Amino acid sequence: MDSITVGFIGFGLIGGSIARALKELNPKNTLLAYHYSKKKPSIGLIGAKEDRILDIITEDLTDFSVCDIIFLCAPVLSNISYLSQLKSIIKSDCIITDVGSVKGNIHKAALELNLDRNFIGGHPMAGSEKTGYESSSSRLLENAYYILSPTDLTPPDRLEFLRSLVVSMSAIPVIINAGEHDDITAAISHVPHIIAAALVNMVKDSDDPEEKMKTLAAGGFKDITRIASSSPVMWQNICLTNTVSIKQFLKLYITSLQDVSDALSSQDASYLFEFFETAGDYRDSLPVKVTGLINRSYEIYLDVIDEAGAIATVATLLATNLISIKNIGIIHNREFEQGVLRIEFYEEGACNKASLLLKKYRYTVYER
C-alpha cells in the first residue's frame, strides 16, 4: 500500500494502537495528532513522538487539510463536535472515520453537515479497561472484529480503501448499518456495562462499616464486574448518545429480572431451572467457550503474531511441559480485553505454570 497521511483527534489506547499498526505497515506513512489544549502536550503524545510513531503534533486543525484519512478517537460527543470544524478544512476525497461504540448520532451529524460522502463510521472491537497511549500495541487490533458503517452516499472506492486498511492492520472488517450496530452494541456491551456498574454500586451501598462484602468479594463477583473499571467519561458519553437502543434492551433486562423475582416469590422451581439452563447453553455456544461467570475459571491471555503455526507453537510448548489445556482460541471481539489468544486450564496450578513458562519464552501474558 502506498504511503498515506493520517490524522488523529484523540490519542489514547485505540488511537495509539492504530497509529502503531499503520507505522509498522509502512514507516513512510505520515501521522499527525491534534493537541487541543494550549497546555503542554500529554505524556502519550510526547511518548508517541519520541517513539517515532507520530511525525507531527499540532494545535491547528488546518494542518489536517493534507490528510487522506482522519481517525476521531475522542469520546463520542467530542467526535461529533469535531465534524463541523473539519468540514471546511479537509480535501474532497478525505475519509473521516471514528472509533466510537455508538454510530447513530455521529452519522446523523455527518448527514446534516453534508459530510456523508466523507464519513464512514468505525468501531474496532478491541481494547481493555486500561487506557492511554502507554497501553497501546500494534497488535491490539489483530484478529479483532472492526465494524464499518458506511452512509448511503459513501463512494464504494472509499469504503474499499478503509476496508483494505483495516485488513492490512490484521483486523476483521464487518460492514453493517449504523442502526443495527447500535442495537447490537447496546445488547452485548452497553447494557452489560450498566449492569456491572449497578452491581458494584449495590454492594458498595449495602456493605457494612467493616466492609465485609468488599473483603470477601472474589471469583464470580470480580469476573462479572471487571468492566465496571472502565472510563466513566466514555460510558457517560455512550449512554447519552445510544439512549434509545440502551433503554430498549435495559427494559428487556429489567423485565427478565422481575420474572426471576416473581419465580422466587412463587417458588417456581421449573422456571428457575430453565432460566439457568437456557442461559448456560447459550453462553457455552459463544465463539470462545468459557465457563459460567460464577464458576471459577483458570485462564490466561497472550499476544501472538498472526502467522501460520502460532497457536500450534504455543500448544506444543505447553504439551511438552506436561501442561494440559482445556480450551484454546483466538478472541475476535476484544473490547475491554487484552491478549489475542485465550487459553483455559483445568486447574490453577497448570494456569500458573503455563504463565511462568510462556513469560520465560518472551510471550506477553495477561492474567485475569
TrEMBL record:
Keyword NAD belongs to the record: yes
Q: Which UniProt keywords apply?
A: Amino-acid biosynthesis, Aromatic amino acid biosynthesis, NAD, Oxidoreductase, Tyrosine biosynthesis
Pfam hit, one = PDH_C
> Is Oxidoreductase there in the keyword field?
yes
User: Could you tell me which residue ranges the Prephenate/arogenate dehydrogenase domain spans?
Assistant: 4-294
EC class of the enzyme, as a word = oxidoreductase
The domain of life is Bacteria
EC number(s) per UniProt?
1.3.1.12
Q: Where is the signal peptide?
A: none
Please give the pathway this protein is involved in.
Amino-acid biosynthesis; L-tyrosine biosynthesis; (4-hydroxyphenyl)pyruvate from prephenate (NAD(+) route): step 1/1
Which InterPro entries does this chain map to?
Answer: 6-PGluconate_DH-like_C_sf, NAD(P)-bd_dom_sf, PDH_C, PDH_N, Preph/Arog_dehydrog, Prephen_DH
Provide the GO biological process annotations: tyrosine biosynthetic process
GO-annotated molecular function: NAD+ binding; prephenate dehydrogenase (NAD+) activity; prephenate dehydrogenase (NADP+) activity
In terms of PROSITE patterns, this protein maps to:
PDH_ADH
Which reactions are catalysed by this chain? prephenate + NAD(+) = 3-(4-hydroxyphenyl)pyruvate + CO2 + NADH
Q: Which family does it belong to?
A: Belongs to the prephenate/arogenate dehydrogenase family.
Q: This chain belongs to which protein, by name?
A: Prephenate dehydrogenase
Q: Which organism is it from?
A: Anaerocolumna cellulosilytica
**Gene for this chain:** tyrA
